[in-house]
Amino acid sequence: MTSEAPTLASAGILVRADGQMLLAKHAAGPFAGRWSMPLVGVAPSETAEEALARMLRDVLHVQPGPVEFLDTIAAEGSDGSRFVLNAFTCIDWQGEPALGRAPGPYAEAVWARPVEAGVLDLVPEVRDWIAASAAATGRPAARTFDATGIGRALSDARGDLIAAYDAIPVAARREHFDGVIALDLLAQAADEEIYALNETRRCLDVPGRVWRPFNEAQWGDLVAPRADESEGAVRARLQAARGATHAWLTATNADALGAWVNHETRGLVQAGACIEAIGERDREAAARLRAASTNHAR
Fold first, then answer.
1. Residue 80 falls in which region: left (phi positive, over 0), alpha (psi -120 to 50) or beta
2. Strands 106-112 and 21-26, how do they pair?
3. Cys-Cys crosslink for 42: which of 51, 123, 182, 201, Cβ 3.0 to 4.6 Å?
4. Upper half-sphere CA count for residue 266 (Cβ side, 13 Å)
5. What is the pLDDT of residue 144?
């Protein structure tokens, strides 16, 4: 244990409107490999607030706004070094935090709700402070995913979708009824599956990547040139998408399926749950087809 005086640092508490706070993984130093709110050492020539503004501009690449002192946290590094972290609530910053391409103090960053933060390897004192300050009662339970089980569930959901589609008369599959074109829903299922699979892989492969939800408005623009696509071509794309998903599941281990990724709207979610959601969307599409078909028959 070192007897040196503790290092003074500023900690930025950035919280979005949805209640998620910014956490960053330290790339090196006494907290290497662990997560905390973004920190910066205070130089002898600056105040804690000035150091925080410097970190927001130079490391997170946002325009600082007002800050309010919140609390002081005593922390210890893996080498026994001691820190006094002055935590400040950051208000009305401008821009989306980004670490930049050049190597910096953080390897990656995520938005997470306080009750979700426990799934990360946090600096222990920061973990305790987040739990206490948020009056957190727990954290999301980590699940163990089985690739075979996910594959079966996806197959069942896809079967439900195809059955609902096949129940619609052939002549009506390109008609508009209740805002639904049956063949378009089938085409969208294929494109959403490919997107979900690829986005899951990207989030696992690229540190700090944030999952971007499938954009139906953009999909509508992209699918317009395929308006004359045959039903056979759509079914072939649907089958190819499912083949790619099953191939990935076969080649993927349980650790990858259980890994946490940062979802733009849902916070921290496991990769296996992202793949399971493909089946959920298939069942939602099947329900829309059945409802539209029923209304059309009246």
1. left
2. antiparallel
3. 51
4. 14
5. 84
Phi, psi of 211 (to 5 degrees): -65, 125
Provide the mean pLDDT of the chain.
85
pLDDT in tens, 31-42: 999 999 999 999
- The pLDDT-based confidence of 239 (bands split at 50, 70, 90) is very high
CA–CA separation, 12 vs 87, rounded Å? 6
Single-letter code of the amino acid located at 210:
V
Q: What are 151-202's pLDDT values in tens digits?
A: 999 999 999 999 999 998 898 888 876 677 889 889 999 999 999 999 999 9
Q: Sketch out the chain's domains with CATH numbers.
A: 7-133 (3.90.79.10), 147-297 (1.20.120.450)
286 Cβ contact list (under 8 Å, min separation 6): 157, 160, 161, 163, 164, 165
pTM of the predicted model, to two decimals?
A: 0.59
**Amino acid sitting at position 68:** E
